[in-house]
């Protein structure tokens, strides 16, 4: 279901403002005008995730394109076009929807208390925005986040650019784990002693909610694979066997120059877009593997079908760059941001849930959770100015740190060579110092947090104020 063939892709592109889950893009969707909100609902279902039994209390999003697939739909829209969703909460707890990586209006950012009220059970909220960037993005809740993402609420959002090169096929992969016991039911979502380290890992690993699925792809064709790490904890080291591939985008943004995929580190919240050149011989298998030493695993596979299209990987056309504001480094204002462990007791009861612990801090402050008296911002930024986030990780763990509402340019690192990427998430390694430049061009309060959700929810959160 995640496969979009070239023919379907062309058909889909003919539908103004079309969205849907790959091939499931049904003709009836053409009836919806671009500005008419699409339905998007959070609800509790039963689903089979581990290839054995049915898991109860799975949380998913359903919408116009739902069909039989229990996974949240892959939403599609276009750069510069209006996107609108009427979100209805059918859970039995409050939630919100955050559009990760999209530089949109603050009021649409989906962070309770900071940008919008909680969406209580039975209530709805209208989201509407115009994505300024094409690429691979995602949507997820920002309330009781460990449980809600942990139980399923994480979907892909693809923003197309009409000028994007056309590939022979396209596949979207939503990678994540589940914390299930032997009876296929959810077990405790985290262990405190792991939350104080690299996080609590899942017991069942899936791509598109299936253990190691295999997808057909045209022999000898060029296949665009959009990969999202939606897991709350796991950092992937992705490698391909059986074919060559190029990295064409990271975190939704086209890379400055395409590069061969050797091994790619992709952490929670991040995306990577590959172009894979399928083998010529029918039936050949290409395996996407996670080669983290402790946990090797075939994540998903592609199987060559049909007579070879005989494409060349070198024929891959680059993606059009998304226009970004240029940072002015000569006048950039430094913002020190130290990520550390903490012993401070700051966790407070809140509507969006607390894990009851404070293990982490930014500039020595552990974020206590959503509430009526928010902490002071980490920085007050003047609209239009450039800021240099001087991040320092003084913990022995890696943190995929994520900024809402604006992208940053990766400038330099104390420990490694960095690519000049534009991104919304940076994986900062132990003892690393990194400089990220941000043009403060989007007014509002923007959350800044680690995307290992146990870290986010036990203190490693703050926000920037742009005015
Ligand atoms: Cu993926 Cu605060 O976000
Ligand atoms: Cu972290």
From TrEMBL:
Coiled coil: none annotated. One of its GO terms (molecular function) is oxidoreductase activity. One of its GO terms (cellular component) is outer membrane-bounded periplasmic space. InterPro entries: Cu-oxidase-like_N (IPR011707), Cu-oxidase_C (IPR011706), Cu-oxidase_fam (IPR045087), Cu_oxidase_Cu_BS (IPR002355), Cupredoxin (IPR008972), TAT_signal (IPR006311). Keywords: Metal-binding, Oxidoreductase. Residues 56-163, 374-466 form the Plastocyanin-like domain. The keyword Calcium does not apply. Pfam families: Cu-oxidase_2, Cu-oxidase_3. PANTHER family: MULTI-COPPER OXIDASE (PTHR11709), MULTICOPPER OXIDASE LPR1 (PTHR11709:SF2). This is Multicopper oxidase family protein. It comes from Rhizobium terricola.
